[in-house]
Amino acid sequence: MRAGLLDQRVALQAKSVSRAANGEEVVTWTTEATFWAQVQQLRGKEYFAGGQMQDAVDVKVRARWRSDVAREKRLLWGAVPLDIVSVIEVGARKGWLEIMCLAGARNAHG
Predict the structure, then answer these.
(1) Parallel, antiparallel, or unpaired: how do β-strands 25-49 and 74-77 relate?
(2) Fewest CB within a 10 Å sphere: which of 23, 29, 70, 90?
(3) 32 Cβ neighbours under 8 A, 6+ residues apart
(4) What CATH number is given to the structural domain containing 95?
(5) What is the pTM of this model?
(6) pLDDT tens, the chain, 110 aa long
(7) Which of 96, 97, 74, 71 has the alpha carbon at shortest distance from 86?
(8) Per DSSP, which regions of 5-105 are E strands?
(9) Separation CA 11–CA 75 (nearest Å)
């Protein structure tokens, strides 16, 4: 993949969970790294959950290989949080990653 196709800035974020004084779980996301990537929206879908219509979009993110990308983390693309569904190594000698993500499903809830 040509580096010129990596035209979008994304942030890799890690989740941390703590408890508020009332015992409620508090989820925060901390940015660990930012990098250039190619972001493609593959398809969108609507579904009914929690008594209302929800949207979800499948997104493929291509980036240079990194060792720190994992399913427990998420990507932030502009203001859009992307839940990582799978991480696929492409090419020999750790050349590229294809990071399959879901936008709009569970990420609104932390």
Answers:
(1) unpaired
(2) 23
(3) 12, 13, 14, 68, 73
(4) 2.40.10.270
(5) 0.77
(6) 555 789 999 999 999 999 989 989 999 999 999 999 999 988 655 544 455 544 667 899 999 999 999 999 999 999 999 999 999 998 877 789 999 999 865 544 44
(7) 71
(8) 8-19, 25-49, 52-64, 74-77, 80-90, 96-103
(9) 5
Sequence letter at residue 50: G
Domain residue limits at 65: 3-109
Tokens representing 4 are 């010129």
Q: What residue has token string 């290989």?
A: 65
Residue 71 DSSP SS3: coil
Q: 109 to each of 8, 28, 37, 58, 87, how far by Cα in Å?
A: 25, 11, 25, 18, 22
As for how many domains the chain has, the answer is: 1
